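Both lines are retained for reference:
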Amino acid sequence: MINTVPQIVPQPKSVNFMGRWFSFDGFSNMPCFLVRTFSIPKGSWTIEKVEKQGCGISIEEGKVKIWGNSNIAYATIIQLLMQKKDALPEIVIEESFRFSFRGYHLDIARGGVPTVSTFKDILNWLFLLKYNYFAIYLEDLFP
């Protein structure tokens, strides 16, 4: 495997990449909704929630340890899998956000209305980018 440092968005507080990649066959215990939505295979890898300060993930062979906000950890794992579907890096990633409120506002009051499929795509991307608020403006007050 190529020893390129994985890219995470938004940029984490710290990334400690050990230079190794492990073969990945899927997770045995990732939430079903995420497995379906992002086409993550079922396999032998496990995700273990640990108690630790802050928010982040640590990957060792066959296991991903997560702490802090689970949604942020899952989004980071999925970002890694989007870069290499069959491998996960030996890595420790600690995340910290400058703003507790990370939102997106969609105004569809005076323009085209997205399809349900487009809404789902927007929400999936916002999840992957670790946004935690979505506002939609639907009212049209103009004639």
Summary: The domain at 14-95 is CATH 3.30.379.10 (Chitobiase; domain 2). The chain has a mean pLDDT of 93. The two ends are 60 Å apart (CA to CA).
